[in-house]
Amino acid sequence: MKTIIEKAKAYDEALERARALNNGKDIDVEAGTTTCEYIFPELKEPKENNDKKIRKAIIDLVLNNIGEGILDHNNVDCYDMLAWLEKQGEQKFADKVQPKFKVGDWILYSGDNYEAVRCITKIDEKGYYVEINGLPHGIIPYIIPYNHEICMRLWTISDARDGDVLVCNINKAEIGGDIEKLPNITPTICIYQNVEKDQDYIHSYCSLYNESSLVLQNRMYYNAFVYNIHPATKEQCDLLFHKMKEAGLEWNSVTKEPKRITKFKVGDKVHCGDETQLVTIIGITNDSYTTDSMIGPIPFSEEDNWTLIKNKFNVGDWIVFNGLILHIDEVVNGYYRTTSIGDGIHNSYDWDIDNIARLWNISDARCGDVLISSLYKQPFVYNGHYTCDSLGAYFGLNYRGELSIGDNYDNHNNNWTRLIGVQPATEEQRNMLFNKLHDSDYKWDSEKKELWHKIFIN
Prior knowledge:
Blueprint: H1 4-22, H2 35-39, H3 50-67, E1 72-73, E2 76-77, H4 78-87, E3 106-110, E4 115-119, E5 122-124, E6 127-133, E7 139-144, E8 152-154, E9 165-171, E10 185-196, E11 201-209, E12 213-221, H5 222-225, E13 226-231, H6 234-246, E14 249-252, E15 257-260, E16 269-272, E17 278-284, E18 288-291, E19 298-299, E20 306-309, E21 318-321, E22 324-332, E23 335-341, E24 347-350, H7 353-356, E25 358-359, E26 370-373, E27 378-386, E28 390-397, E29 403-405, E30 408-410, E31 422-424, H8 427-439, E32 442-445, E33 450-453
Antiparallel strand pairs: 1-2, 3-4, 3-8, 5-6, 6-7, 9-10, 9-13, 10-11, 11-12, 14-15, 16-17, 16-20, 17-18, 18-19, 21-22, 21-25, 22-23, 23-24, 26-27, 26-31, 27-28, 28-29, 28-30, 32-33
């Protein structure tokens, strides 16, 4: 504060400047200065220091980078940059800001092309700390700067989506049933379904009360008995799903329903209590299995007496069944869908295959059968002769796909009996071979097992 003498001096100087202006003297006035500011310099706003302007611009640039997810530049952490700038005399950015939200608030952050629900875990001069799933590093801290508050608002129940896991406190009077062991205000984890219009009831697929009592399909009176509802943390979600698993349930996020964990699945073949009753499971309800038998639904309580029967053969296997050579095309609900190679091609579903059939091997091949070599992936007509080293052929396609007459096909695996190296050809492969034969002016007599060129055919 100025002394009386300093004030009197300043007044005299101001009076002199006013007289000079009034007398029309040529006075050098700084551009942008008003008459009043010339007479009374105290009225003029102090000009911002150029260094301060530069620091402020850099701080805004770094904060914008952080908001865009750019947390470093040339291997220098953006927050280290801010700390350094603050040490240069600039007032700390957070000192100028009163945070709009507080620790523990759940907020909805709206980005350019997405929305995300986050919980504020910490607030300091850098901004709001939240946690995100920073793949591949798992859950990592993330900072939302203060100048992004415009993109944030508090989460409400209207933001909940079908299937979200929420937590809240419930007055136990709203729970009903056996509630003696529950606290008056019961912490609850639930899987949200919807809010009942006009009545303000929250419907959930299941709820876990006080980390101990699991209930399916319930509703809570939102306005009167439910407090502090918000999204669940990862740990709370894990706890709910663990308790569901202990109760024999699992959450299906696609169909939005808790499903019973069963010992068997649709398509399994099982012996029901004894070796004579073989059934295939064709459906599963909330409390029982549906099978292809006439005995009706079978409750889950019976499954401990069942034995799973695994299919003996796999898709792609060639088998011998009642004199037929079959290809396993598909396994549907425990049954085989097969293609038969013989007098014709037809599809069939067979259920006795496991008990009767066996894998095809080279000893099942007949003279004139069309086989295919796994080495060259080309079909040939077998002439009935084989050794541990090779198979004889009337004709076939070589590795270049060209017709070859009277060739041998090497067995580099030396294990025909396990179907390694050769197997029956499919209908498509047979057609490819005989089309090539026809294009080369040959004709095959399948009864006489003779190959003729057209110049010898009348």
